[in-house]
Amino acid sequence: VKSGDGKILTNIEKLLFWVDTQQSIQTARDVAGNITKIDVSNYDLIYTIRSNATLVGGPSAGAALTIATIAALENKTLRSDVMITGTINPDGSVGEVGGILEKAKAAKELGAKIFLVPIGEGEVTFLKPEENCIQRGNFLFCETKYKQVTLNIGKEAGISVIEVRDVNDALKYFI
Prior knowledge:
Distance between the termini: 18 Å
Number of strands: 12
Structural class: alpha/beta
């Protein structure tokens, strides 16, 4: 955060940045300004994205960007053992994302003890195919049935998963 005239600057080095990620940064700035009551038009915000990837896309980091922006504006330190995934909506609510289980496992590998997810995404339900085959003479007859399976993300990934409704819910865990 530097004094300025409301610019959003992204230092992405060798990354290709998708438009939806850029939109998430703009929404994060606006929501952070609303929550902190700081006039962000008086500051330039510089975001540095470091990744082993060559492409960054999607709105899944919106909530994290908002939390980081609030911390930067208020000069606060964030806990390094808490991570979050979720889109950010203009009203500050945290929206749904995909790949929660994979993200929870990655968060644990990176040292997180708490992983915050949008409301309703602490569990994942999917259909698991089960095949039953019967041999009759030279023919094999198979039938596939689908069984509904629900996984608890926290138990499956070995990390504490907490559902949050909005940025204010999430801030309690970070600061």
